[in-house]
Amino acid sequence: MERGGRIRGAVGRWVNALLEGTHDHYPCYLPGRFGFLSTWTLRLFYSGITVAKEDLETLRSLQDDGIIVYAAKYNTLFEFLFFHTRYQQEKVPYPDLWLDDGVFFCQPLGRLLRILLAYARHLVSDRSLPDPYRADYARRMLEQGHVGFLSMVDRKGFYRRFVKSRTDPLRYLIRTQRALERPIYIVPQLLMFSRNPPRSRQRVVDFFFGSEENPGRLRRLAALFRAPRNTFAEISRPLDLREFCDRPQNRNRTEEYLSFLLRQEITDRINLHRQSIIGPTLKTREELKESILRNERFQSMLAEYARVRIKPVREFHKEADGYLEEIAAKYSTRVILVLSTLVRWLVGTIFDGVDVDMRGMRNLKTAAQRGPLILIPCHKSHVDYLILSVILHMNNMPCPLIAAGKNLSFWPMGALFRSSGAFFIRRTFAGAPLYSKVFSEYIRTLLHEGFNIEFFIEGGRSRSGKLILPKLGLLSILLNAYKDKACRNLHFCPIFIGYDRVMEEGAYLHEVGGGEKKPENLRQILRAGRFLKRRYGRIYVRFADPIDIEDVLRHFDVPFEKMTTREANVVCRNLSHRVINSINAVSVVTPHSLVAAVLLTAVRGSFTATQLFSQVETYLAHLLSQEARLADTLADPAAAVRRVLDNYLDDKFIEREEGGPLDAVPQETRFLVVEGKRPHLEYYTNNCIHFFVPAAFTSLSILARDAFQFAATDLHADYAVLQELFKNEFHYDVDASVELYVRKTLKAFINDAILMPHPTLPETFNVTSVGFRKLRCFAAFLSPYVESYRIVLEVLMRYTSKRLEKKEGPKKTVAMGNRLYRKRKVTRKEALSMVNYENALAYFASHGIRGNENVEKLQPYADIIIRFGKYL
To answer: In this predicted model, which residue has the larger pLDDT, 634 or 154?
Structure first.
């Protein structure tokens, strides 16, 4: 017996030595380095999978704040080993503690023997296998800085938790969090093997090899080797477990129920993130028609429609079906992939690159995980919707469904656009009530399914270079769909897409000058090859912060669902102006637009490059005071201006002055603006004019005081008059007052030495000698608009409203403008703008002025134009 005791003691000491004095040997822990050959093999195996750098930075920042636990949807060794290997390689917190499973075959041999020995000893002594939860091993490892990994959906895991009553890792984490001060961050991880949206019907290959969402081993390997660029990892929004437990509704709930809610929330985040990448389930065309035309709401509406017209409902079925055929997109991922390749080649051929705001893109991706996005770019070119879809596709987001004008449905491009996500909308719904109802139901269904929608709030491409007043039709339909609970939330995403040079420049100026718009057709496509012969500079894409519809509705006292039609229209207008202002706020000032602005507002007669650059510096200082976003090329303004001058010389926008000295150095060479090209320069000036409008209004208000000293309050009345008169031309912040605009502009003028505060009188300013010239330059931004409105007033004073009906008003205005220009009563060719004429006619019509019958109403406006025109 004594000898046996000595043997057992010796064996025990030997076992303790092998176990290094601890029983903490579990297969759920995998060391960072488990063998050179194994590590090298895994790194090579996973090398084709990409991880966004922005996600890696997020993980690095979380490490300093709390404990990290990664969460995957499905329980697979493949994913655990990938994140363990790649994150370690990228020097970010990597998971080494698998909370709901174990790793045996990758363990170093010595550690594997210790695990087996610890298991055997525990089995002999306690008649059970060791449990890392019961021993609090998992908690101690997390507190020491190790990173956990767990899954949300696992059949065996559910059986163990629910039937066998084993420890639920999430419940364990909740208990651990309640005992700790540091927060535990649960970071959902997404490993994608395909960008294809899910299908409504399972295929045979999915049955044998697993779905594209949760592929089997063979399908994973095939995806990894056949299409590595479609295999990538992303993280979803991290969940702060302490914040989750402290929510008022969760404080008194049991750990078991909290673990259920926690699992549900994390799974929802992963599902929404996945949908934000690949889009919602693609239904067949028949399924889509069935869901739109056969649902109870539409059938009820159709029955009422038929009752009013005293006809059987079935007589309208064919008509409704025809409308849906006319409208609906035929989304095809294969066509999108081909078009994406083609557009990238096209952009690389005729542009010098695409400058994308990646911070804004990340905000966009985050918003997409909370509900459908309504993408609202400005519209300057046909390239807009092509380049935006490509950018989204390259950044792991689905191409949106795009509202396109019915004019683009011509053969064969209509079918191609449909397959790439375009749905077609008529310019007007007048006289087609059933079409309107079918279209509204189509939009509602898209939101309900979870599709992102893109549309141009301006209605069409801007011919003037600045943003057009918003068209509210589709925006109203979207808001009504939200009001009818088509989706839980909506995020409106204003997007700026700008260009150094616009391909359609010539066509726009033809229309602005009064020429007819040529309809899109196949011949135009065939002739587009001429665009490949020149370069158009860079494309700039900027994303404003998404506007959450719930945030907008908080500004109104009445709940949205209880609003009357009139109140809902107020919301719609308010939202539209927020969108337009957001686009303007993130727009990029390019060297071409800045130089064009200087040439039209600050240059009189001939000029040298040195004189031009001096004024460019003045405008740059003002842009910086307005926190405008500048193109990267303006980091070296002198070089940027020289390049633009060369471009404008090549395009004959400017020319060298005749009779100048032939031996002049480049800086002393004198140039002239070509008179016939001023409208071209006006187009590019308008690309950035919104940053100068407050300065222009303020400057003209100061000049109209006709004194070198004034008080700030003296300007408010004139500023308000100008803002009201040109409200169809420029967009104003709905939350900003005239006083705020004036105060901010005066501050900028003081910083630029245009004004000097009076030494004793508060809010009183003196104009400096240099400042007077600069004020005239800023005010000159309004010159073409003042002259355009003067032309319109001349027409309204000469003709009766009957002679100006329909298209006659614009035609007679064009003729009047040309006549006054020839007589030099209008001095700026850019004032001969059909866009300005139509805006002015609309403005006066809204005030009850449609012809010379309203002469008593006309005179005050004529006085305003004459008064301000004297100082321009």
So the answer is: 634
